[in-house]
């Protein structure tokens, strides 16, 4: 595993329904900076202190290989929503490892200041926490391997460190520059070869007229298609005949034929060497053109991916907002439910107490009814004697 520099980035966490958070610890969503996964950890009521506690946490530390580390500098900020110039910010540098997967500030700020409605840090039950982070080195690093095309020297393949979207943009900007340079070079035209075909004029009156005609015809055919190997013997035969001809050629033609014939093997070697080198050039040029075409397609795909990522990011933001709204509704439901349980418990206690009182009242009523019955009978007897 090789440590590499990764880059920097920032993340903002908007914490809704802050006062309704009942857990001791509360985590942000996972985000990626410098090719590494992170999340922010807060203690809303303090980590065993009367202060707001904030930390940076490595969420996937349990799945990382032995010996992993991340050397980073980061700054945590609590945003003042009334005045952006009055924020509270603290910075530190730390090397995360298997023994310390989170690091930050136990006493970031006073809970009294945080909850003071005048200060502006807690507005509409919302707190905003931001982080700026730079990854100096990490092991293991996140590496993108560029696959080489067939017949490419493996040593030419580079390992590129990915730094999120910014890293892709930087890489494909270089690719775009390569395409522009290549197209500019192509537009200037490619190398061209010039052939100096000589024309042999027939001078009539030669004593070997037929032989000279045939030799000149062979020479013309050879000159028009020089680089076929089967033309070498015909060319040699034609030059040999013409070099010995005394008629049918002008002095300049005789001089050219003689000069070429005297250096025949050397000139043919030069032509054949050129043919071989030219063939290699054309093959390489074809391979480069094919690679450039593939690079153009990859760059087009990169632009499409970038547009798709923007769409997915927007969709993710909308989903996060909807998820946060659902969480708020869920927390409100749980809070209302707890309130309902408390009210119901009070009503239950009142019911039991009143039920006992009702039993006592019922007994008193029974006794009173018995006494009333006795008194009514005595009253009726007395009434009967005197009325």
From TrEMBL:
Which keywords accompany this UniProt record?
Coiled coil
Q: Which Pfam families match?
A: MATH_2
The record's annotation in InterPro entries points to:
MATH/TRAF_dom (IPR002083), MCC (IPR050804), TRAF-like (IPR008974)
**PROSITE patterns, per the entry:** MATH
Stretches assigned to coiled coil: 305-371
Report whether Coiled coil shows up as a keyword of the record.
yes
**Is Coiled coil found in the keyword set?**
yes
Query: What residue stretches are annotated with the MATH domain?
Result: 8-133
Concerning PANTHER family, the annotation shows: MATH DOMAIN-CONTAINING PROTEIN, TRAF-LIKE SUPERFAMILY PROTEIN
Listed name of the protein? MATH domain-containing protein
Q: To which species is this protein native?
A: Trapa incisa
């Amino acid at each position: 595993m090789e440590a590499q520099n990764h880059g920097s980035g920032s993340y903002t966490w908007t914490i809704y329904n802050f006062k309704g958070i009942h857990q001791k610890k509360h985590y942000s969503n996972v985000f990626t900076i410098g090719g590494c996964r992170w999340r922010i950890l807060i203690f809303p009521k303090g980590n065993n202190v009367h202060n707001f506690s904030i930390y940076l946490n490595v969420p996937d530390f349990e799945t990382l290989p032995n010996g992993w580390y991340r050397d980073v500098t980061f700054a945590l900020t609590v945003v003042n929503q009334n005045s952006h110039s009055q924020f509270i910010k603290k910075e530190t540098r730390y090397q995360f490892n298997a023994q310390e997967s989170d690091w930050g500030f136990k006493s970031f700020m006073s809970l009294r200041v945080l909850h003071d409605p005048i200060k502006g840090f807690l507005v509409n039950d919302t707190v905003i926490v931001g982080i700026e982070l730079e990854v100096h080195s990490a092991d293991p690093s996140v590496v993108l391997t560029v696959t080489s095309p067939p017949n490419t020297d493996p040593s030419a393949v580079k390992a590129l460190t990915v730094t999120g979207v910014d890293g892709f943009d930087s890489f494909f900007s270089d690719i775009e520059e390569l395409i522009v340079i290549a197209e500019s070079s192509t537009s200037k035209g490619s190398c061209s070869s010039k052939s100096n075909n000589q024309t042999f004029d027939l001078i009539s009156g030669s004593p070997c007229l037929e032989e000279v005609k045939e030799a000149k015809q062979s020479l013309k055919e050879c000159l028009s298609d020089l680089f076929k190997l089967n033309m070498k013997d015909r060319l040699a035969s034609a030059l040999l005949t013409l070099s010995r001809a005394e008629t049918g050629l002008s002095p300049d033609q005789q001089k050219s034929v003689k000069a070429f014939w005297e250096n025949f093997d050397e000139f043919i070697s030069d032509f054949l060497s050129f043919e071989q080198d030219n063939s290699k050039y054309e093959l390489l040029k074809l391979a480069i053109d094919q690679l450039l075409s593939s690079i153009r397609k990859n760059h087009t795909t990169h632009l499409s991916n970038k547009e798709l990522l923007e769409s997915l990011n927007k969709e993710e933001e909308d989903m996060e907002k909807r998820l946060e709204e659902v969480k708020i509704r869920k927390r409100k439901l749980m809070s209302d439910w707890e309130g309902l349980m408390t009210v119901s418990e009070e009503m239950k206690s009142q019911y039991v107490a009143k039920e006992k009182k009702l039993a006592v009242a019922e007994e008193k009523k029974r006794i009173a009814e018995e006494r009333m019955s006795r008194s009514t009978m005595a009253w009726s007897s007395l009434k009967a004697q005197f009325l």
